[in-house]
Amino acid sequence: MKLFGYYRSSTSYRLRIALNLKGLEYDQSPVNLLESEQRGQDFSARNPFASVPMLEAGGRDRAQSVAILEWLDEVYPANPLLPADVEQRFTARELAYAIATELHAPLNLPVLQYLGREFGQDQESVATWYRHWLAKTLVPVEARLKQLQAGDFLFDAPGLFEVVMIPQIYNASRFDFDLAAMPHIRRINAACTRLPQFKAAHPDLQPDNSQRKET
């Protein structure tokens, strides 16, 4: 397997975590989003979405992170990302999809660049935009976790929800989003980031991070 991604891309971060949780070996091929390498002729010919991550696996190039996550669970059932119980599976999807569908679209790099380039927004205005959309989704996610009385993980072990949430919390911290009123999210984030599979996936340790920390 070969994972094409960018170290700070939340969707690439998802895939790194999932592959680590499943114990699957993979090589990485960095794609520099700041230099628009994803829109280059060679890459976009393989991935018409011109986006990361792209996973070269099973004889084809696979795009769209959530679809890849589901494919991984179907083809490699060991260490499942989704629980066996149908109601728990729904809950995991409900929370993971809330983050994946409501937050990624307005907060990804092309949108943030467009706000500055086409609408003349400065960095603080873009950060305000970012925090607004984070609150819109993370507040109800926190409320659902409270209803469920979630512990260190949504269920017994980290799975689809944690795979999707932890990269978004990493990005939230970069934009100074206040998580003080979200104890369930903070507890799950803390529990996950202590695990070796999550640590190894962290942006600080990726080969394309020139400032990477060897810890």
Break the fold down into its secondary structure elements and pairings:
Blueprint: E1 2-5, H1 10-21, E2 27-30, H2 41-46, E3 54-57, E4 60-63, H3 65-75, H4 86-102, H5 104-107, H6 109-119, H7 123-148, H8 160-174, H9 183-193, H10 196-201
Parallel strand pairs: 1-2
Antiparallel strand pairs: 1-3, 3-4
Helix pairs in contact: 1-3, 1-8, 4-7, 4-8, 8-9
What can you tell me about this protein's structure?
The structure is a single chain. By secondary structure, the chain is α+β, with helices and mostly antiparallel strands. It has helices spanning 10-21, 41-46, 65-75, 86-102, 104-107, 109-119, 123-148, 160-174, 183-193, 196-201, and strands spanning 2-5, 27-30, 54-57, 60-63. It has a four-stranded mixed β-sheet, covered by helices on one side. Strand 1 (2-5), helix 1 and strand 2 form a beta-alpha-beta unit. Helix 1 (10-21) packs antiparallel against helix 8 (160-174), helix 4 (86-102) packs parallel to helix 8 (160-174) and helix 8 (160-174) packs across helix 9 (183-193). 33% of the residues are buried. The mean pLDDT is 94.
Defining traits:
7% strand, single chain, globular, 55% helix, alpha+beta, 4-stranded mixed β-sheet, 215 residues
Quick structural overview:
The protein is of the alpha+beta class.
Count of individual helical segments: 10
Tell me what portion of residues adopts beta-strand conformation. Answer: 5-15%
- Structural class by helix and strand composition: alpha+beta
Major sheet: arrangement of strands: 2-1-3-4
**Relative helix content:** 55-70%
Beta-strand segment tally: 4
Distance between the termini: 25 Å
Describe the oligomeric state of these chains in a short phrase. single chain
Average residue pLDDT: 94
pLDDT < 50 stretches: none
Element pattern in H and E: EHEHEEHHHHHHHH
Principal-axis shape equals: globular
Radius of gyration: 17 Å
Q: Main beta sheet: strand number and arrangement?
A: 4 strands, mixed
